[in-house]
Amino acid sequence: MSKPVTGKTHVGERRERRPNGDIYLYERVTAYNEQARKTYTVSQKLKGKIKSGTQEVITTRPKKRKGEEAVACAVRKHSGLTDILEWVGTASGIDDDVRFSFSEGDAAKILSIARYWIGSGGNTLPRLEGWQVMHSLPYGEAITEDVYGDLFKSVGRNEDGVQRYFSFRADRLGKHPVLAFDSTTISTYSENQLEARRGFNKDGDGLNTIKLLTLYSVKEREPLAFAKQPGNVPDVISIENTLTQLKCFSLEKPLIVTDNGYYSQENMMKFASRNMKFLTLVDPNITWVREAVDVLRDTLASMSSTCPFDPSVCGAMTMRTHEFRQLRQRSRNGKLAGEEETFLRRLYVHVFYSPDNDTRKQLAFRKDLLELKAQVEDGVTEFTKSAQRKIDRYLVCSKKGRGGQVKVGFNDKATAEAKKYFGYFALVSNQSMDTFTALENYRLREKIEELFAVNKGGLDGARPRTWYPDNLRGRQFVQFVSLGYHCFLTKKIKEMREGLGKNKSEKTAALVKLENQLDKWLEQRSLAQILDWFDCIETTNVRTPMGNYRWSTESVARDRLFLGYLGVTSK
Q1: Given pLDDT bands bounded at 50, 70 and 90, which one contains residue 64?
Q2: 212 and 279: one domain?
Q3: Residue 223 and residue 172: Cα distance in Å, rounded?
């Protein structure tokens, strides 16, 4: 009995030898034709070949079928900006310090938001999720309002992580760091922020404020630590906690530089009693400072006192032994708590004279007195306390006859005494240093004002934008990390510019020309504009059955030179 026809196909292999000795292997599908009563080939596909003289089968690369997708996955991202920020985080050590201080998830979110603020020019956080679509960040998931809200609360309550980060940053400073200390205020309408109180508002908008205190390394040009306080706490009493915090850092003999807003006998005594170095601007109207001015007046008139880096200023130094008085906190060695005790410390008074400043102050002084004189003659009776003191000291008022017209003159002796000290300013320190080194350190302190401007204008720090104090603390910390990115990148660009166009004998003429073009281009742009420029660079990643491919936007020679000199790419 014949075998029944099932209609099924059979898969077999066929070998075909070619004239060169290679054997081609085919997968052949056959079927039986019942009417013709013979087997026929349904399909045939080449599987591979065996080269002549070998036994190894070399499989054939599959051909793309019609309609089959050539691209399995393709992604396009803005990479120029994020590559620069990735380099900053690594080169500065900020990324490592954040990751060592916080959990992996929180650290990735902190770094992502910090990079977003500096990369977007301080855009508000609700735009972050959309910006994140085209920019790769350490945190790969979407950072929604709930995500960054929970992060700020967590970081704000994690004081261990915050102080650990400050300590790590302090460890990266060199020996004998010079630290500027200053404050700014943040205005708010919120009634939920407990620290928001009526005090001196540096923005002058009349709102309640929160005070932000910052330590800044003027030589490394990097922020070190920050703290927030109620807005009604004056600057002059805001330094106590900072001195205590500095003891937590492993800093070798730091020098603290402050403005005259922090000058007081008590603050100098705190520095002196704790053996901490300080340099502060003092009011030249203080009696013992005027004595120092009188001692150095003739010296400042000589050519040898001219500042080498600013010929418009003359400077000299005198030393004095200053007596401090304080009440004892504890009873010890026969002395009772509450008793007054005195101790002596050596102070160095650096006095400076600026003829230009002298001229400006004299002109302002004359205008002010003439205006007060006119107001008194017109019968004005209500003045501010400051104006009344000037009237009492510099004006002489009398009347012609009984009930006659008011006659106003000037107290020439008092005005001459006041003008003697115009154009002078003084710096006081308990550390011996060159006069013009002291001036340079103090002028570097002014960089902290730029820091506050960047924080408010470039990192969305002008308003709290959070409901509760813990959230604000966390938000300010993330802004502080972003500020570290900004300062490090600004410093590296400045260092790079110092070498552009120099050492011409070691470079080709074409390279020198290109460096000069780069220097001119950088001079005309802010950091935000530079980052915006490189944000146009895009990287496309494509995955296909044939392999993975990657390419980036082409760039001109000047841009490649910038990235190479900065260290983002290899030269």
Answers
A1: low
A2: yes
A3: 12
Residue 139 structure tokens: 């945190």
Do residues 503 and 516 make contact, with C-beta atoms less than 8 angstroms apart? no
Specify the long-range contacts of residues 41-47, CB closer than 8 Å, at least 24 apart: 42/9, 44/14, 47/13
* Amino acid identity at 138: P
pLDDT in tens, 78-93: 888 999 999 999 999 9
What's the rounded Cα separation, in Å, for the pair 495 and 523? 13
Is residue 410, in this structure, part of any structural domain at all? Answer: yes
Residues 214 and 339 placed together within one structural domain of the fold: yes
Number of H helices, E strands in the chain: 18, 17
Q: Looking at 140-154, 251-265, 348-362, which range is the least confident one?
A: 251-265
Quick check: is 478 in a domain?
Answer: no
- Does residue 344 share a domain with residue 409? no
What span, in angstroms and rounded, lies between the C-alpha atoms of 255 and 237?
Answer: 19
Global pTM reads 0.78
**5, part of any domain:** no
CB 433 within 8 A of CB 352: no
What's the domain count of the chain?
4
- The amino acid occupying position 505 is S
Coarse DSSP helix, strand, coil percentages of the chain, rounded to the nearest 5 percent: 40, 25, 35
The dihedrals phi and psi of 407, each to the nearest 5 degrees, come to: -110, 130
Domain that holds residue 370: 357-419
Q: Is the pLDDT of residue 303 over 60?
A: yes
Q: Are residues 310 and 234 in the same domain?
A: yes
**Across 273-277, 339-343, 468-472, 516-520, least confident range:** 339-343
DSSP one-letter code for 504:
G
Among 540, 420, 444, residue whose Cα is nearest residue 74: 540
Integer angstrom CA distances of residue 290 from 293, 295, 426: 5, 9, 9
> For residue 466, what are its two tokens?
């959070």
SS3 377: helix
Asked whether residue 1 is assigned to any structural domain, the reply reads: no
Residues 6+ apart with CB under 8 A from 89: 95, 111, 115, 485
Strands 255-258 and 277-282: parallel
Q: Are residues 164 and 149 in the same domain?
A: no
β-bridge mates for residue 552, sequence order: 539
**Strand positions, DSSP E, 34-147:** 38-50, 57-59, 73-78
Q: How far apart are CA 85 and CA 332, in angstroms?
A: 56
CB 441 within 8 A of CB 191: no
* Residue given tokens 């500027």 in the structure block: 180
pLDDT value at residue 492: 93
